[in-house]
Input
Amino acid sequence: MEIPAAARAHTPAGAEAFVKFFMDQVSTAWTKPQAGLIPPLGEPDCLSCQSFERTASDLVAKAQRYESRPSTTISSVAIEGGPRQMVHLVIQQHEVDVVDRAGKTVLTDKSKRFAVNAELTWRGGRWWLYDMG
Output
């Protein structure tokens, strides 16, 4: 997996781009579905990363997938201060069906907009998601 150049910059804008890329990878992991896309982007103890990956793994195991993109990042804004880089996200969760291999709907996510803060660390020359909530 190639992290886009904009998301590799050790700047607030790079942190914003990294979080958008991370959320795009979550969407890919859930729509394909494909396990293993999320862990290489997060710290080992990242609980949000573990939760996102668990959903991807469950979808793979059950031969289910999100029929279309589950969410879109509306905005990401870096916040100054603190030991880690914080990025405030506004996310639009879409109304989308989870379908089985036959195309039968097994559940539907409802549309909603919400805000979360992502915490990032910089190590080894790149950003890592520390947690999100």
Summary: The first strand starts at residue 64 and ends at 66. The beta strands are 64-66, 71-79, 85-93, 96-100, 105-109, 112-123, 126-132. The domain at 5-132 is CATH 3.10.450.50 (Nuclear Transport Factor 2; Chain: A,).
